[in-house]
Amino acid sequence: xxxxxxxxxxxxxxxxxxxxxxxxxxxxxxxxxxxxxxxxxxxxxxxxxxxxxxxxxxxxxxxxxxxxxxxxxxxxxxxxxxxxxxxxxxxxxxxxxxxxxxxxxxxxxxxxxxxxxxxxxxxxxxxxxxxxxxxxxxxxxx
Length: 142
Description:
mainly beta; 3 helices; BH3618-like; 142 residues; 8-stranded antiparallel beta sheet; 8 strands
């Protein structure tokens, strides 16, 4: 996550990110508020339309995972991203799926355009992608 992207997530007057297609399981929840204190790598997002739709996100880590996914051009257009450099990739974290690990969903990362405040979830076709990738040890696991 670049400094500019981080600043755009946490501005003095935050405004919602719009997800034209919603997120998996919540296609009718289009607008999300981001809760970020300005430190650390975990961001909470919550639907403004459906309060039960809340997720933890963390930036894609190229050192661990390799190159960013390639967003199809129609999806990039949906978030008004004209170049790959305009996309900030995030992973959805799940602290409840495993008692020892906080897991990350590698199959359905989220692409954000922090300038247009638009986002889209990219569900990738590769069946080998892990939806419960061991991201970090659960804080309660010691």
